[in-house]
Specification:
28% of the residues lie in helices and 38% in strands. By secondary structure, the chain is an alpha+beta fold. The N and C termini lie far apart (32 Å).
Amino acid sequence: MSALLRILPSFRPMREDDIDVVVAMEHAVYPFPWTRGNFHDSLQSGYSCWVCQYNQYITGYAVLMLAAGEAHLLNITVGLEWQGRGLGRAFMQHLIAVARAYHAETMYLEVRPSNTVARRLYHRLGFEYVAMRKAYYPSLHGREDAVIMLLDMKKHA
């Protein structure tokens, strides 16, 4: 049996009442999670905040900043029990469509060099390496660099 979902997930804007589920998922996935305040502030600041749902369950979330013809993916997470089923790809395709709808010409993101699964997905979606940001992420052994990646929306229509 295929690990990919047979029913497509749905996406909707994140609401304040989603934050408890989102924070719990964030804490389950990351050793250095965003705080409740980070998500609350993102919603209050008007960032494009989304949840991914499969049936009635929130299976992931994302925060996208849109401004001046650019999109910057600040956070995307698929819950541990939902990983490996194609949700990350579907969610990224949705976020790219959102960025296009806001007339973004480019989309940036940072990813840990150690996150090879995400880096492979981003590359398959057309993201290209731009630079390395030194000591960007906290890690169990000090700091970890970030790979900066860019999707040129005009090139990947």
